[in-house]
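Action item from last week, closing it out:
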Amino acid sequence: MENSPPYYKEGLPLSTAISKSEKQRSRSASSRSSIPSIFFVFFSCLAWLYIAGRLWQDAENRMLLSNLLMQNSAERPKVLTVEDKLVVLGCKDLERKIVEAEMEITLAKSQGFLKDRLKQPSVSSGKKLLAVIGVYTGFGSRLNRNVFRGSWMPKGDSLKKLEERGIVIRFVIGRSPNRGDSLDRNIDEENRTTKDFLILDGHEEADEESPKKAKFFFSTAVQNWDAEFYVKVDNNIALDLEGLIELLESRHGQDSVYIGCMKSGEVVAEEGKPWYEPEWWKFGDEKSYFRHAAGSLVILSKNFAQYININSASLKSYAHEDTSIGSWMMGIQATYIDESRVCCSNSRQDKVCSLS
C-alpha cells in the first residue's frame, strides 16, 4: 500500500490533476493574449478602409478635374480673336458703336469735318457770307471800341449794309468771372444799343485765356453764320476793311486754307520773361516754334472753323493763342498761305491792317 501512487482527496491521480491544471492555465493565458490582437486587427482594418476611401476620393476628384480641363480646352479656341474677346467682355455693343463712329467720321470728313449741315440761317437771309470777322475786345476797352466805330468799323445801318455784302463784323468778348456783375451788365447794355457784339457765354474773359477764347470764337461763329472764311483780329489792330474784303474775294472758292503772317521763333523757356511758354520742353532741343500765323490777324476757311468746333474739347492749347492755333493746323491737311498784306507791322503800302 505504501508504493501505490498518491491520490487527491477527490479521488484523481496527482499527475492527472496537474495536467488539467496546466491546460487551464494555458487556455487562460491564450485567451488574454488574443484580445489585444483582435483590437489591433480591427483598427488596422478601419485605418486601411479610411486610407483606401481617401485615395479613391482623390482619384475620383482628379479624374473629374481632368475631364473638365479636357472639355474646356476642347471648347475654347487656342488663340482668341478680337471678336471673341469682345464677346467675353460683353463689348459687342461697343464694337457696333465704334463702327458707327468710324462711318460718321468718314461722313464728317466728306462734309468739311462736320456731321450735320448748319441748320441756323445766316444773317443775310440764307445767302452764304464771304466772311465773319471777330475783333477781340475786353471789359476795359470801350473807348477803343468807340474809336473803331468812328473809323474803319461800320455802325448802325452801315453795319447792316455790310452784312448784305456778305461781311459780318462783331466785337468778341467773354463773360466776367463774377457772372452777372457790372462788367457783364455794361456789355449787355452796350450791345443792346450797338448790336455789334458776339458774346461768348461759355468763356471767362481773361488775358491768359486767349487760346480758349480762340476756340470759343471759331466754334460760336461757325455755329451762327455760314461763311467761307472766319477772321480773328486783335483789339489793337486797325483794318483797311475794303482791302481785307478784296483779299478774301481773291481767295474765293479756296478750301482748307490757313492764312496769316507766317512766322516761327525761339520758345521762351525762362519763367518771368515775356512770352514765356511753360511747356517749352515739348518743342525739342532747339526750342523753336513751328510755323504759324501771327496772332494779330488769322484767317481760317470754313472747314477748319468746323474742325475746331467739333474737336475743341480735345485740342491742346499752349500759353499763346497764335501757337495754339498753329498746333491745331499741324494735325490736318492745311494749305498754309503766308500773306504779307496781313503782316500788320510791315511797311507795305497795300497791307490791310496796321497797329493802332
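Closing note: The longest helix spans residues 14-75.
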